[in-house]
Amino acid sequence: xxxxxxxxxxxxxxxxxxxxxxxxxxxxxxxxxxxxxxxxxxxxxxxxxxxxxxxxxxxxxxxxxxxxxxxxxxxxxxxxxxxxxxxxxxxxxxxxxxxxxxxxxxxxxxxxxxxxxxxxxxxxxxxxxxxxxxxxxxxxxxxxxxxxxxxxxxxxxxxxxxxxxxxxxxxxxxxxxxxxxxxxxxxxxxxxxxxxxxxxxxxxxxxxxxxxxxxxxxxxxxxxxxxxxxxxxxxxxxxxxxxxxxxxxxxxxxxxxxxxxxxxxxxxxxxxxxxxxxxxxxxxxxxxxxx
Length: 291
Fold this sequence. Notes:
Elements: E1 4-7, E2 10-13, H1 14-26, H2 32-43, H3 54-66, E3 99-100, E4 109-113, H4 120-130, E5 142-149, E6 152-161, H5 167-173, H6 177-183, E7 187-195, E8 199-200, H7 204-224, E9 230-235, H8 243-247, E10 251-255, E11 274-279, H9 284-289
Parallel strand pairs: 3-8, 7-9
Antiparallel strand pairs: 1-2, 4-5, 5-6, 6-7, 9-11, 10-11
Helix pairs in contact: 2-3
């Protein structure tokens, strides 16, 4: 093992490994979960919102254990993996009568942040039923928005953590490896944008995107304790042109390699997507380059 390496934006040294060994020795009855909490407390390893990064810490300790650098206690409890066994969202009935007319006629439009609220099942159900990619649980930090015209939902937005590596984006930002590791949490990815199929209002999609990007950073800071400076999404060019994104002034940065983060070779193993992005502040490059 090298004297210094990186794990999830943290530098890990040989001295850190020795500290973890001592922590384990001093608490022989502690479970792996308890040890991860103790290590987070000792290192003050926290998320921007103050919560301990215990899951990330557990991943670090498991990696060191598998590499033979530390010896963790045996697993005491192996709960079911909620991601692997997650049930599909239950269908929720909504009014599907066509909503037509001009944009001015359906205002005011209300954006509601619905994660961990009573409206989240409605969001999950709508995406599962009407988005061509269906519903998947967002990864890492994430927020969900429902947009209402009066009492009727008209659109859904999901936002989550961005990919750690994305060639065309990283070249566009021009940040260093260290800046990318340190500031990747200041980017957000838009995995789902759904305009409900019975909503037929000209220019509504680009209008919603423009308003959504103005709201996003403030909501992220409320939930996670830090702002967002840059957002991105992927478009399947075999299906769509991303017209509403382009109309809302999103930029085309290039295309993905089609390999994904877990590819074992350089051969594409999934559809190649077009990468579109939008800066949320004029000084995004300067802010994202800081280390």
